[in-house]
Write a structure and sequence with these properties.
The chain is mainly alpha-helical. The protein is built from 13 helices and two strands. α4 packs parallel to α8 and α8 packs antiparallel against α11.
């Protein structure tokens, strides 16, 4: 059972840890998470080792995935659909969009599977279950840094000089990661009881990719439907990531603020649902 933990000294013996269920919906026990910080680091290091040491391609796969996607988008949108290139190779435009999208989609998949992948651990010992989705984040950020280094190489090869817009790159990244974390925690909580989530989630990700500015800029969207298009909370941060790197696209403060607010609400919803269902994880999983 998931609980708050507090110490109660006994008159003639060692301290006893009393486990009690939470009474409120959203109460982050930060001191408890801090006491288990070594376990959080262990989860993060385990994921990094599995990602980079026990795979055939290792770090190359982190770069190959967006490179292959950018090549395909360059053929479909650049050569066939004749999307505007803004004076840049369409490969660079596609790759700059795929950096943010790969972070979002990978984070969503891995966070949503963080509980079911550690079922034996959840059943056997007590620890803050929130450490499992949080432990995925460091490996995701490391992948993001590697892909960002590849983007820097492409920018140098094509003589794309960074400008002040680059300051918005971490802001757009934070909004994307917050959305993925919130939705991922909701999916992880539901996947414990309903394993259908693992089949629905890839379809959701595929649909979101087509209605988001990944292989193309949002400026290519017809003006008549642009207002409806911007209701997609993924569109503004993805556009900001591309715009901050290569200057393609645009920055709308109102749309981005809307996406940031939605991201905060998603995180709060994810935490609420996660903690409401947390006490059932060990029994159901």
């Amino acid at each position: 059972m998931v609980t708050d933990t507090e110490k109660m000294p006994l008159p003639a013996g060692p301290d006893v840890a009393i486990i009690r269920p939470r009474s409120d919906w959203l109460s982050l026990d930060v001191p408890l998470l801090w006491r288990f910080r070594d376990l959080l680091f262990a989860f993060a290091w385990r994921d990094i080792k599995l990602r980079y040491r026990q795979t055939f391609l290792g770090v190359a796969w982190v770069v190959l995935q967006p490179l292959i996607g950018a090549a395909i988008f360059s053929i479909v949108f650049g050569l066939i659909a004749k999307m505007p290139t803004h004076g840049l190779p369409y490969f660079v435009i596609s790759f700059s969009g795929l950096i943010g999208w790969t972070l979002y989609s990978t984070a969503l998949i891995r966070i949503s599977a963080s509980l079911t992948a550690n079922a034996e651990l959840i059943r056997k010992i007590f620890f803050p279950r929130l450490l499992l989705p949080l432990g995925v984040v460091p490996c995701l950020l490391l992948d993001y840094v590697v892909a960002g280094a590849m983007m820097a190489i492409l920018m140098a090869c094509y003589h794309i000089v960074p400008t002040w817009r680059l300051m918005m790159f971490p802001v757009g990244t934070l909004v994307l990661l917050a959305q993925a974390t919130g939705v991922g925690m909701i999916a992880a909580s539901l996947a414990v009881r309903y394993r259908d989530v693992q089949y629905v989630l890839p379809l959701f990700i595929q649909l979101m990719m087509f209605i988001s500015p990944v292989g193309y800029s949002a400026t290519a969207v017809p003006a008549g439907i642009r207002a409806y298009y911007d209701l997609n909370p993924l569109a503004p941060p993805l556009e900001v990531v591309r715009w901050s790197l290569v200057g393609v696209g645009e920055f709308h403060a109102g749309s981005f603020l809307y996406a940031a607010i939605v991201s905060i609400l998603m995180v709060l919803a994810g935490l609420t649902i996660f903690q409401c269902t947390e006490r059932e994880f060990a029994d159901v999983i």
